[in-house]
Design brief:
By secondary structure, this protein is an alpha/beta fold. The protein has helices at 5-15, 52-55, 64-74, 88-100, 114-131, 154-159, 163-166, 194-212, 238-249, 301-305, 327-342, 345-361, 399-408, 431-447; strands spanning 31-35, 38-41, 46-49, 105-111, 141-145, 177-179, 216-221, 225-226, 232-233, 252-256, 280-283, 295-300, 369-375, 378-383, 412-413, 420-423. It has two domains: 5-63 and 344-447, Aspartate Aminotransferase, domain 1 (Alpha-Beta Complex); 67-342, Type I PLP-dependent aspartate aminotransferase-like (Major domain) (Aspartate Aminotransferase, domain 2, 3-Layer(aba) Sandwich).
């Protein structure tokens, strides 16, 4: 059964409440199908998927190996609960994750999306301190990074720091200790270099550890790059320094690699750039190739052992999602890891970073472009009203959206974060694709009235 664009658009507006979308000014944009890096609408128009369908599509749409893996699993069973039951697909994926994550990470707990996986890590860390061999029940606080984003569950929002998204829910949130945003673009007062910035930020965090360290259950961080904050990139060495503070004060470390993991930065895990091994590695988005809802928390035997005991002791981790570890999603994930390895796509990302960075530099010629930053195939073009003071345009002017709307006319779909134009193509993007993206942004910059 098929329906006209007009009818689908009518129902889209009437019934479909879209995420992070002001429905009062939403205009239907309906994608019917996709091929490789291209999205195709109902009228056959093709758009390059410039943000990987919100940062999750790794190897392109309709990838034959991933499609085949899902179909083969579908012929066996579509879903098996993780509550007291198992299936080969999640078992094999857990084994693969244990092999691919740094020692001593080896135990995998599944969830359905990134926010829920963050919730898992927070609750695990909290419960750990109450039933480990030497309990420390006074550890009732979490330390979060300024302007962080860890999803939209209550736990994720509590450790998040994007006020525009979260301030409404303040009365519902638990207390969190929050440090400064380690921004390599907007440096602290008096700081002149990235090296100085790292030292300044770590000094601020050391003060927080000195004050609250005995009460901290865990620190949570998006390694290297804070996504929803506006693709904020940390100065080199900050992650390693924060991990060292955790070791010094005996605090657990949660690495939220939902957006930056799975090869996005040119390493499988962003933590690898600074040789950091967290206590909890949180994975989502691209783990299934962007095909199906799946996320995971990988942790160590030290953490796992604290949850073992007689049934009557009630030490189990009482948490679980209906579709966590879904076999179809796990089959897609296994195929994704196979293709990442066989196609050498992570090495490809490192090569494409050089191309994308060079292409983006030309945009600095525009006075409204305050910064261009890139790590792997994660990049950002930040728009400013005052380049010297690094002041952005007022949020309500929607300047980033105007540029992205214009870029759509050149066949590239991008979704901004306020004044930040996010560029995050699939890992299979080529040099020609990078050029296409930048040309579309350039067209957008030229199309907007900046007066």
């Amino acid at each position: 059964m098929t329906f006209s664009y007009e009818k689908l658009a009518e129902w889209d507006l009437r019934h479909y409440w879209h995420a992070f979308t002001q429905m009062a000014d939403y205009r239907p944009f309906i994608i019917e199908r996709a091929e490789g890096v291209w999205l195709i609408d109902l009228e056959g128009n093709r758009y390059f998927d410039g943000v990987s369908s919100l940062w999750c599509n790794l190897l392109g749409h309709q990838h034959p190996a991933i499609n085949r893996a899902i179909l083969e699993q579908l012929q066996r069973v579509a879903h098996v609960t993780s509550l007291g039951m198992s299936n080969p697909a999640p078992i094999l994926l857990a084994r693969r994750l244990a092999e691919l994550t740094p020692d001593p990470l080896q135990h995998v707990f599944y969830a359905s999306d990134g926010a829920c996986a963050v919730e898992v890590a927070l609750k695990m860390a909290f419960q750990y301190w109450r039933q480990c061999d030497a309990p420390e029940p006074q550890r009732d606080l979490f330390l979060a990074v300024g302007n962080a984003y860890h999803g939209d569950t209550i736990g994720g929002v509590s450790v998040g720091g994007v006020a525009r998204f979260h301030s409404m829910f303040d009365p519902l949130l638990f207390r969190v200790v929050r440090g400064p945003c380690p921004d390599a673009y907007r440096l602290p007062p008096g700081v002149q270099s990235a090296t100085e910035a790292t030292a300044a930020y770590l000094a601020a965090y050391r003060e927080l550890f000195a004050r609250y360290g005995h009460r901290l259950a865990a620190v949570i961080i998006e390694p290297l790059i804070q996504g929803a904050a506006g693709m904020v990139m940390h100065p080199p060495g900050f992650l390693a320094g924060l991990a060292e503070l955790c070791r010094e004060y005996g605090v657990l470390l949660i690495a939220d690699e939902i957006a930056v993991g799975m090869g996005r930065t040119g390493r499988l895990w962003a933590c690898q750039w600074e040789n950091v091994v967290p206590d909890f590695l949180v994975i989502g988005k691209g783990i299934s190739g962007g095909y199906l809802p799946l996320s995971a928390v990988v942790t160590s035997d030290r953490i796992f052992q604290a949850f073992l005991g007689p049934y009557a002791a009630s030490r189990s981790f009482f948490h679980g999602h209906t579709f966590g570890g879904n076999p179809l999603a796990c089959a897609a994930a296994l195929a994704t890891f196979d293709e990442l390895h066989q196609g050498h796509w992570i090495d490809h990302v490192q090569h494409m970073e050089v191309v994308l960075r060079e292409e983006l530099q030309s945009l600095r010629d525009y006075p409204v472009v305050g910064d261009v930053r890139c790590k792997g195939l994660i990049a950002a073009v930040e728009l400013v009203a005052d380049r010297d003071r690094k002041h952005g345009f007022p949020w309500e002017e929607a300047r980033g959206r105007q540029v992205c709307d214009a870029a759509l006319q050149r066949g590239v779909w991008l979704r901004p974060l306020g004044n930040v134009i996010v560029v995050m193509p699939p890992l299979v993007a080529t040099a020609e694709h990078c050029q296409l993206i930048v040309e579309a942004i350039r067209f957008g910059l030229q199309s907007v009235d900046w007066s």
